[in-house]
Hints:
Oligomer: heterodimer
Number of domains of chain A: 1
Amino acid sequence: MEKKIAIRARNISKTFHISEDSHNTVKHRLFNLFNPPRDKCVEAVKMMDFEINQGECVGLIGANGSGKSTLIRLLAGVYPTDTGSVDINGTTLLMNLGVGMSHELTARENIYVSASVLGMKIKDVDAIFDKIVGFAELEEFIDTKIKYFSSGMVARLGFSIAVNAGASIMFLDEIFAVGDMKFQEKAIKVFESSWIEGKTVILVSHSIDVIKRYCSRTAYMKHGVLVYLGVTEKAVDMYLKDNQ
Amino acid sequence: MIIGNILKDWTSRSNKYERLWLLAKIEFKLRYYENKLGLFWALLKPIMDMCIYYVAFKIILKSDVPAFASYLFIGLVVWNFFVESTTGTIQLLHVKKYLYEYSNMNKLEIYISTLFSNSIGFLFNIIMFFLFYHLFEPQSSPISLYNCWIVVLFINLFILSLGISLILSNVYIIAKDINQVWMVVTAFLFFLSPIFYKLTTFKKALPSFEYGNPLAGIIINARKVMMETTAPDFRLLAFDFGYSILLLVTGLLLLNKLGAKAAEKL
Lengths: 244, 266
């Protein structure tokens, strides 16, 4: 059976132009018409091509600053690419320390907004609402604005929304660092259950154990270059060898 | 191609319309229900403005415009919607970043939902105007089918505000002080629109200018259909729709070019 493609990246690259002078006002731009700002170029992601199939769990490893976070933002459609294109087949959710939530809204409102952004209908959110709240252990604070929450509570809520409402393509950036030990155990249990079945997951982690346990294929990045994408064991070996 | 993609996206079956309504409701609640006076604020603003201009122009300057309070009221309702939807949305991509920085949500939905929220306030104000005009204005005309034209005029005002909102908030990504520039422009626009002037004085001083200022055209036509109970000036209406669509297309192009970089620049 032919596998369906979830993400197809063709010749993508991303360079950040970090301006040393801030010409971000009309006044600055007018007074410095003939004195363009000096740019420092950082090639965060260098030209690469690859495909990720639907239902795959792909690991992404590399040292700090190797371009992992930029790459998942490009793939999630949050950042535009400089060259090439990314074809995304489904809804995407990027999750690092939280998912997109407004601190001005209550937990209830955030659940409805986030789930709706992920493509769920209101009646479907109604059906899983109690599950989301129960998993996040926030029953008593459901109508409290999340600006009054502790950072752990916000992270738990974000994780719970992602787990229960989830998009078809999930980018998980160091998610096992969320919450206290009890919550981390719970998060791992969810991951080990059937939750990821049918979902496409791109898992960014510095924990080699996590990558080895869940990912069938792994990408190894170094200085913005995709050095290898294939068998997890081989990618991990290359990563460990480079970091010795 | 961009317009084609947008049309395809908005006609596909999804939870998009439900989501727009949800976001609009939350925005409306945040704006009004967090204050002590609640929804009353939506009405209080044009009434307070109306009192100020009434004192200045009717009592002090002895303006001879008939039904002057209603004349002001409808002008200010249109003006306030325009200002709230343009000045009030310059930092929209910054304030609502949480909606698109973790997913591939279409940014245009953020604009539409915010303007929907403003539309609830507009609807409330137009009902208040209608009641005020027919219950308290001694020189009022009877209710007529021509009043229904206000819906068409509102669509025109919505497209105009959306276009300008898109342009301003996307320029904001690269030039933060567009805020101050726009405040000067709106102050100028306020005095170049026939909000409190008598229409004949306005037309005499600035001949044909109502064709150059789309907001002036909308205000003039709103008074025609709601107060004079006549058909709108169709030539003016065509001009205003032309301007609005042109601004909307410019705004969409900017959203596609500059807005795409909002997550990394803001």
